[in-house]
Write a sequence for this structure.
């Protein structure tokens, strides 16, 4: 519960686009993530808003495969 | 119960552009300065700003601060204070160059000077022709500005309290501001941050409307705290609506889409802007297009099964132009509107974008309230800057790019004035015995509420009411009815209940506390709008169609705590130049 609450707050961003996408992801996909995917999701949340948005919009692509998978899921939410 | 205390010279609530700019002045002066932010500072809403910072550098053609001033006064529909506007326009180039020296990666011209973009409402020679005045860093101006200022503050040893939420202002018997109470989200603890000077830089309250381009954190906390402390809110009836937010989601579709040749259609496939603005058509100014869109919807020509949106068509531009000239638009449309603009139009509605009103200040950033004969007596130790403040630069309507200018100029000015104030007021005043009790009582109420209402339900009703009763157009019956409704909802907001009582990062509690702030803003907006019997800038009444300078060239002040309106004069006299006399606002 605490962890989920913390993540929910970390999904509060400066850009409305991210608020909407990340909150949607948290409700839809997050509960089904594997341990390593959870770790990567938290890493993603540490990125600056504009960089994270570029990744979600597939304008930039990370090298890491798990990160790619998590981004796929975020895009699908 | 006595709360834990921490003492600083200055406390700044808000780590967006204005808060960071102010903090830098204080920390560089060697003062002990704390900045609180609900989110990591570089995730403040300033990050969303793309268009740029307005300043008359004259790098792209002749320009000067007086022309910028004229555009701003005219844009404000003559409700802006001309002394503050002169101050801002004169200072703008300087604060932009300072930002450049701090390391801001501005776009450049070939000769190395800062590149400047054109932007609506900015002109050469008092409205003669458009001028390129907006300084930007690609489409990441806000982001770059926040990162630059944050780094400077780290170097200057500003102390950051990240994921802390200020809850209430602390005043003593004499009305001096002595700091704030604040909640640490990580622990759920509430403490007092005591200061000799306090600045609010909490940003806008765009989340009061159902359709909003603003991020979720924009809940008007500074306005709520000020209102609860008995400080009036100024000109809250004035909200800027952006003509093209994605229907249902709010996400902004930039003016650039229409700049590149996209246009608006009603349900009959008619390019209706030709009727409203025969010359400028879809490129007319924001308020003109927003009103046209709202009119089409209201008169039954909206598209969709409920007829509640308008279509933004760009498929005729072809996929290459869309990809190349409008990066991101296709993804945004697919993601938030479920349409591919390469083949289908994007459903859009006028969407709340910017709050012109706020906490009343002068151009030093001092919060000012009526006292005796003086309508603008400074509240000792209290400052506000940025979107939460009403200075009043933007008057009844803000020009694009003038908000970032406002953050830099008045963030800095407030910081400078605080440094001076702190020199003259060297001791912390004693906190009143009951300091923090009000906050604890609010929290206890929320904790112990039985049979209360869900926060989300009340917030949704508030947003719907604001949208339906106080949107782009204002109708007398809807306003009167809206005031009644919003008061009822404000009553319900006093009885919200949360199920989750945990301490650590309790988002339910935070959202309940945010609603307490939003509702103050909503009530102030509706009451002020109902009372203003004219049309000016963003406030457009069906029953009083014209601007009425004889009776209404004045600022509204609404006292939430006692439900009273008063007015104060507009500063028509600039600092050094002649007054810009009110004229009809035509573009
Ligand atoms: C999509 C979009 C694009 C825009 N583009 C432009 C543009 O190109 N040019 C322009 O001039 N303007 C633009 N604007 C407007 C401009 O971005 C904002 O007006 C401006 O960034 C507001 O800055 P601020 O410093 O007042 O507040 P914000 O940047 O909103 O920061 C508020 C800060 O206060 C903190 N805070 C709030 N409440 C509390 C609390 N209770 N306790 C602790 N901390 C708190 C937040 O965490 C945050 O750090 C745009 C607006 C939007 C929505």
């Amino acid at each position: 519960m605490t962890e989920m609450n913390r993540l929910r707050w970390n999904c509060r961003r400066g850009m409305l686009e991210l608020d909407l996408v990340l909150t949607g992801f948290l409700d839809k996909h997050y509960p089904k993530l594997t341990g390593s995917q959870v770790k990567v999701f938290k890493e993603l949340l540490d990125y600056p808003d504009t960089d994270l948005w570029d990744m979600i919009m597939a304008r930039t692509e990370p090298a890491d495969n798990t990160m790619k998978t998590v981004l796929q899921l975020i895009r699908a939410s | 119960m006595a709360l834990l205390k921490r003492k600083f010279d200055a406390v700044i609530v808000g780590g967006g552009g204005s808060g960071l700019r102010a903090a830098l002045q204080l920390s560089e002066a060697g003062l002990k300065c704390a900045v609180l932010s609900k989110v990591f500072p570089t995730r403040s809403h300033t990050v969303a700003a793309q268009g740029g910072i307005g300043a008359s550098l004259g790098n792209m053609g002749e320009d000067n601060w007086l022309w910028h001033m004229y555009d701003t006064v005219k844009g404000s529909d003559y409700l802006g204070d001309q002394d503050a506007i002169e101050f801002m326009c004169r200072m703008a180039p300087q604060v932009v160059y300072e930002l450049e020296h701090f390391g801001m990666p501005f776009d450049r011209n070939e000769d190395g000077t800062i590149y400047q973009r054109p932007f609506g409402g900015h002109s050469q020679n008092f409205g003669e022709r458009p001028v390129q005045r907006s300084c930007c860093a690609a489409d990441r101006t806000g982001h770059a500005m926040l990162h630059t200022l944050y780094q400077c503050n780290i170097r200057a040893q500003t102390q950051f309290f990240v994921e802390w939420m200020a809850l209430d202002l602390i005043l003593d018997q004499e009305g001096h501001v002595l700091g704030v109470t604040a909640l640490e989200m990580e622990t759920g603890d509430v403490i007092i941050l005591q200061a000799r000077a306090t600045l609010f830089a909490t940003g806008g309250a765009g989340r009061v409307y159902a359709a909003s381009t603003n991020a979720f954190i924009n809940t008007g906390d500074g306005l709520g705290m000020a209102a609860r402390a008995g400080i009036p809110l100024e000109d809250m009836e004035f909200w800027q609506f952006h003509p093209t937010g994605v229907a249902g989601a709010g996400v902004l579709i930039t003016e650039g889409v229409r700049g590149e040749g996209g246009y608006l259609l009603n349900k009959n496939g008619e390019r209706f802007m030709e009727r409203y603005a025969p010359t400028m058509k879809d490129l007319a100014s924001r308020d003109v297009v927003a009103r046209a869109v709202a009119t089409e919807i209201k008169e039954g020509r909206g598209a969709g099964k409920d007829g509640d949106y308008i279509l933004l068509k760009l498929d005729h531009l072809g996929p290459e132009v869309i990809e190349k000239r409008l990066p991101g638009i296709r993804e945004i449309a697919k993601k938030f509107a479920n349409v591919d603009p390469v083949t289908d139009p994007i459903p859009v509605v006028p969407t709340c974008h910017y709050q012109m009103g706020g906490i009343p200040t002068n151009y030093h950033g001092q919060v000012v309230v009526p006292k005796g004969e003086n309508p603008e007596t400074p509240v000792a130790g209290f400052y506000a800057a940025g979107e939460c403040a009403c200075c009043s630069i933007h008057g009844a309507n803000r020009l694009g790019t003038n908000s970032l200018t406002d953050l830099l100029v008045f963030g800095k000015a407030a910081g400078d004035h605080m440094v001076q104030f702190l020199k003259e007021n060297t001791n912390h005043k004693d906190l009143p015995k009951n300091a923090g009790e009000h906050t604890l009582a609010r929290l206890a109420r929320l904790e112990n509420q039985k049979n209360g209402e869900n926060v989300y339900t009340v917030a949704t009703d508030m947003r719907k009411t604001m949208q339906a009763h106080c949107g782009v157009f204002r109708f007398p019956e809807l306003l009167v009815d809206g005031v009644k409704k919003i008061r009822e909802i404000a009553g319900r907001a006093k009885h919200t209940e949360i199920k989750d009582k945990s301490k650590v990062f309790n988002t339910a509690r935070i959202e309940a506390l945010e609603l307490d702030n939003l509702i103050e803003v909503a009530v102030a907006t509706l009451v002020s709008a109902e009372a203003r019997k004219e049309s000016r800038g963003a406030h457009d009444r069906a029953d009083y169609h014209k601007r009425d300078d004889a009776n209404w060239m004045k600022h509204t002040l609404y006292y939430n705590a006692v439900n009273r309106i008063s007015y104060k004069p507009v500063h028509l006299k600039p600092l050094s130049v002649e007054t810009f006399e009110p004229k009809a606002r035509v573009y």
